[in-house]
Write a structure and sequence with these properties.
Distance between the termini: 68 Å
Shape: elongated
Helix content: 25-40%
Strand content: 15-25%
Largest sheet: 10 strands, antiparallel
Structural class: alpha+beta
Order of helices and strands: HHHHHHEEEHEEEEEHEEH
Length: about 375
């Protein structure tokens, strides 16, 4: 395929993605030619069946190398690829407008649109290996952390990879500005982050739980959880920035049933019980979002007094909100317990998480189960 055809196809794909109109074709082509250092160009007839975005960008990067516009180094190729993918991606305002329009018809179609776009522009990669968390070295870094809003469209630096094509969907959660985007290296299907605009740690108070439940009200086909909560977060890590993680429904934990039920005197309408699960886990269900958040605060406060960690995972089942709370021992090095030993052990099948039982707040012995039941019944 000639470079003329590649550039023409690239412009066609950019227009199809709704970021540009046919009137913008010359502008797109000239932007691409400048990025790859090609001085001569003969337009081709636009065609319907197009190569993938990745295939087109690879060809354009090869052309830039041949033209000696960039060095054959991973960073140079990464930055150029990101700049090209940015041209294939509509601006944030356009994406949010399209997302909102689709959402009015179907929330699932809206997330499908955004997810497909993020996969196409390489914001989401089909990579599942463990990726080391990024930590900033500068005290006054920009962006302040890896999940800040200011990463949107950022060219990158020596610590942060280029993410010029990075986009976020804006949300309002309990009166606060939030956004969501899909993780570059997903650990499960449609793995996404819900991020507060304000750079501050996640404070597990009732408003936080209200926000968590509101997410699954907005996206009932997703689950959402607070998996990165830390009492004393490193100010240079993503734990210093309030965020939840989420993804497509269908986790093994969803099929788990109650081992025993217990009542909440203050909240008689809330269904609560201990789950049949290898680590200490409680499920609470209720129709009223605010009431359920208040009931969950009882559990969090009691666990906090006993220096236990609670990781809530929320979802919506028809008219009911449902939250599974994993109760764990406090560990100094337990920043992301959902990924303990590179496995999503909290969300995997029970037979696959035996090695993580030692950080469960209560063990699975007869005595441990009696203690856990007494703990829950005292709420």
């Amino acid at each position: 395929m000639s470079i003329n055809q590649v550039v023409t196809d690239f412009a066609t794909l950019a227009i199809k993605n709704d970021g540009f109109m046919e009137m913008d074709r010359l502008y797109i082509q000239n932007r691409v030619l400048a990025l790859i250092g090609t001085k001569y160009f003969v337009p081709c007839v636009p065609r319907e069946n197009l190569p993938s975005a990745n295939a087109l960008v690879e060809k354009l990067v090869e052309e830039a190398l041949e033209n000696k516009l960039i060095e054959n180094q991973s960073k140079d190729k990464e930055v150029l690829s990101s700049k090209l993918m940015d041209l294939l991606t509509p601006p944030t305002s356009v994406i949010n407008a399209l997302f909102s329009k689709i959402y009015t018809k179907s929330p699932e179609d809206a997330t499908h649109y955004f997810y497909h776009l993020c996969c196409q522009n390489a914001s989401v990669k089909s990579v599942t290996e463990s990726v080391a968390p990024i930590e900033w070295k500068q005290d006054n870094a920009y962006p302040k952390c890896p999940v800040c809003f200011t990463n949107e469209g950022y060219i990158g630096n020596e610590q942060l990879p280029a993410k010029v094509q990075h986009r976020m969907i804006r949300m309002n959660l309990e009166g606060s500005s939030w956004g969501f985007y899909y993780k570059e290296h997903p650990q499960f299907l449609e793995h996404c982050l819900f991020v507060a605009e304000k750079h501050q740690p996640l404070d597990m108070k009732q408003k936080t739980l209200d926000q968590l439940l509101q997410i699954v009200e907005i996206f009932p086909h997703y689950f959402a959880g607070a998996f990165a909560f830390s009492e004393n977060p490193n100010p240079k890590s993503s734990l210093s920035h309030a965020h939840f993680e989420g993804g497509k429904r269908g986790l093994p934990i969803e099929k788990t049933t109650f081992e025993t039920l217990f009542s909440l005197k203050k909240y008689p309408k809330i269904i609560a019980g201990i789950l049949k699960w290898p680590v200490s886990a409680v499920r609470m269900q209720g129709e009223n979002r605010k009431e359920l958040a208040s009931a969950l605060m009882l559990l969090l406060k009691k666990c906090h007094k006993q220096k236990l960690i609670v990781l809530p995972v929320a979802r919506k089942n028809h008219n009911f909100f449902e939250v599974d709370c994993f109760i764990l021992k406090a560990c100094d090095n337990l920043e992301l317990p959902i990924y303990y030993q590179d496995k999503q052990w909290l969300l995997r099948n029970p037979c696959e998480i035996d090695e993580a039982k030692h950080i469960s707040a209560f063990d699975q012995s007869t005595q441990g189960k009696v203690q856990f039941k007494a703990f829950c019944e005292s709420l």
